[in-house]
Structure formats: structure tokens, C-alpha cells
Specification:
41% of the residues lie in helices and 20% in strands. Strand 1 and strand 2 form a beta hairpin. It is globular. With 135 residues, the protein is of the alpha+beta class. Helix 1 (9-26) packs across helix 4 (119-131). The protein has helices at residues 9-26, 53-68, 72-80, 119-131; strands at residues 31-36, 41-46, 99-104, 107-115.
Length: 135
Amino acid sequence: MYSKQILTLDEVKAVVAAAEAEAKRNGWAVTIAVVDDGGHLLSLQRLDNAAPISASIAAAKARTAALARRETKFHEDMINNGRFAFVTAPDVEGLLEGGVPILHEGACLGAVGVSGVKASEDAQVAKAGIAALGL
């Protein structure tokens, strides 16, 4: 039988707090989503003045990063480089940079998705959140 590590509520809160601090430090109005390894929402926080649509996009980015076990930038780059058929892949959406998996010892514990600013800035916020785990 396999056993696996999972994110605790305290760890999820630490990720969100660190991501929020990064966003606020830069003056960015974003939404931060954290999901488990199956893409199920654990936390969603929309900062003041973040666009309402960013809540849906952040959650979709996080879900895709968790299910694919890779950054959503990989998918965006693949599509932008001509692999247009990938947009028809089942159960994936949020194929934009800003979704980052939480990987530890070869396993995916979940993912963080951020939406609201430039794609690279969304990813920066997500990675700042993950860094709080010290993995």
C-alpha cells in the first residue's frame, strides 16, 4: 500500500499568506487559489480590487497545475508554439502561466494558481507562496 503526504490547513494558510504578502509588496490585485493533488479547492482568496473573473482563472490554473504535475506555463508555451490541439484535452483549463504545482520528494501535494496581473507576475506570486513551505 502506498502512503502520501498531504497539505495541512496550516500549510495552506502559510502558502496563501506568503503569496498575499508578495502580491501586496508589489501592489498587485490578484486572486490566489490553492488546491490538493486532485485539483480540489482548499483555499481561494481574492485581494481587494482583483477582478471577479480572476477567481475562476486562478482556480483553473491551480487545478491544471496539480493534475498535470507541471507549471501551466508549459501548456501555454506548447499551444503558442503551434500545438493548438492541446486546447481540446479533457479536464484541463486555465492553460495560462500562473499555475504552479507543489512538488516534494517526487510527489505532487497540490498547486497554487494566481490570476490578476501579467502572467509572469502571477507565477511569481504563486512561487512565493510555495516557498513558504520550505520544501
